[in-house]
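Posting for a labmate who doesn't have an account.
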Amino acid sequence: MPVTAFPAEAGIINEARELHRSGVEASCSGRHREAVRLLRRGQHLTNGLDPADPDTRSEWLATRIRLSTTFAAVMAETYGPAAGLDGLAEVRQLVEDVTDPLLQVELRGSIEHNRGLLMLNAGLIQDATAAFDSALQHKEHRLAAGESAPLVETLVKTLWSRGTAHTRLGAIGQARQDLTRAVTLATEHGLLARAADASHALGVLDLRVGDVPAALRRYEESERAYRGQGPDLPALLGLDRAHALMAAGLADEAGNQLDGVLEVLRAEHGTPRYLANVELYRASAAYMTGDLDLARRMASAARQRMRRWGCATCVANAVLLGLRVGTAVALRAGRAPRALVGRILAFADGLPVPRLADQAALARMLAVRLEVRRGDLDAARDVLDRVPRPGRLTPVDHRMLRRLCRAELAVALGDRAGALAEIRAGLTDLGHVRDRMGGLELLSGTALLGQDLAELAVTLVLEGGDARRLFSWLERTRAQTYRYEQLPRVDDPEQAERIAEVRSLAQSIHQAEHDGHPTTALRARHAERLREANRLGWHAGRWGRPRPVVGAPEVMARLGGRALVSYASSGDALVAVVVAGSAVRLVRLGSAERASASARMLNADLNALAPDHLPEALAHVMALSARRQAERLDAQLVRPLAGLVGDRDLVVVPTGALYAVPWGVLPSLRARPAVVAPSATAWLAADRAGTGTDGRIVLVRGPGLPAAVGEIDRLGAHHGTAALMSGEPATAAAVLAALDGAEVAHLAAHGVHEPENALFSRLHLSDGPLYAHELAGLSRPPRQVVLAACELALNRIRPGDEPLGFASALLAGGSRTVVAPLSRVGDRACAAAMDDYHRSLATGAPPAVALAEAIAVDPLRRPFVCLGTG
């Protein structure tokens, strides 16, 4: 082969180096095809050389090795880790020809790093850790001979990667040490993107040890750092944030997050591995929410991609999720095919241990549940004996499932006491997890993780017919969010800045609409800033220690002449536990589904009946339908309790769809004071709370209200000294200042429920939104809040009867009473109801009494409820 002139060779080598740099950049940005094209072109250039000059030859050889190393890693994304490892094995032979000892050390470090990554992605975690150890030895050696930013960056990447491997091995201390050092080094040398990578990995570590708020905080920090470097965000960040939300039981929010990630990856033709991972997590989120068809489809798609890619661990995870879906379908149908049990056990027995010990344990627990359903209790016991006790890093949902298996087996063996002991222990474990959660959504979401245990407990106790015991278990299993004491507010400047931006953008949108200008870009930025504020709320809670669950004697002592009715269901059986006087009684009320259907239809009829100017004929038809549903609910839910509650005022603790019942609409409860509470524990905490107010009445009118609803001056006339706020002066800041320490806060404003985070449900004021968390964060929240012009009462009911919405956020934040409608209310009807309500309040009537009298005037058009205590 003819010798090429040195300058020409140097130019070709430089071009190949630039192609390598561009290929690495394309690969890191997820542009897989572009990376392959660039790297192949670089290899073609270097393969056409054979320099004789020693220095040129050394540079040529180093460039070939770097190109081939990166190309092996990139090809592994398509053809699997085995192909990449084969490519690296060939590259390792080339290093022997490098004569410069420092360059040889540097190249070995790069190759070992890539070997570690491929092994890590293939699930060979211990082998990966050994490769990273070797890479770090070479890199530390090279760095000792002379420091530079590129060398430091490669060291940071390997520390971050080894920290990730240690995390997966459960070596928590070593993982935190590696990742913290990576963050420190990257920050010191201005490598902000690498610092974000390592901080992201620390979030994964926090999640691994069960600290969900800390993980979400890390992800938020990483996202800000990434955005500071450019607009693109790593797909893994969205994936890991979704994982954290699922760990807190927020499967709906996780699904929304993952849908967004999938959309981006598909549009950018993302790598099969990333797509498969996101599909698998999306399947998990669907499984948690009971959407088994979606879960099955996503798990199947992920399994096929992972099988092509060659990651055995990934394939096992996808197969396991498919088996979980199959088990859920079988249990729903009340049958447990022997063939399904056989497939599950064969899968578990075929998994390599200890590498996939968690997956094997989970599979065996599925088999235990099916064997119990089949009645083969000896087989169930034998399989359960092979499930190890949970360790420190065992996910909480796995711990709950093991408790459920033990409880269901105990029930089948006739050991009811043993079953309840298992359930009690499981719910205690879950309580410890809940105590670490940071925001209202995270607190409430954890109920999903213990839902099966809670339902089994209620079923068991209900079968025994012991009303006091059932009352105790209901309090232990429902609406735990409201047990937590409020802590003094700690201002979060970043969150305050985001909220200020949202308010400013809301005004900009309004101005653009007024001027006839486009609003698409403004709305997109508004939505983005709102999402950021929502995410900050996931880890910025202010909850203190949990109050103890109350017992029947404490409730009786506080009730006095009132009665408490706690509704519950088991399967399709609806019951009420009635606490009145010194007695606790159980009343069976028939079909839960029938009551739920009537509640939904009543709500729909009241919505249809709400408009002020409804044609008389239509209003008559809708009123007849609404009365029919109200009568049905009254006959099923209230009249069977008449002998126990008499004419007492009521405290109602609903369940499920019964949260949508406006109780004052039911004939037997007309003009009877009643309050709705998420649990007896929550009611008692609110009823015992001190006032902490200065007696002020604050009446607020937001923009864009109909004249009738906005007549706060008319309401103010009932109180004499009420502060009236409307128009431009009624800004969020001014309203908040006025409400701090107020006795009554009447808020007549349009509102929006925020499904991702109830604390960010909001009312519209003159300068933009006022958020529920701002009201709940006041040092002295208003004792009573009236939400007059919006449906922001109990907008969403999570598992465990955890109601979420603007009103529930206020109650959790310390307000004692919230008055709000459960369905639409006509403008005139709302104005008239509020006029009657404030007239009674001004004469000294308690809120529940004043509201009962106001509703009784026209129940079907005044579907307000009194929440909390009254």
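Reply:
Got it, the structure tokens are right above this. The longest strand covers residues 583-591.
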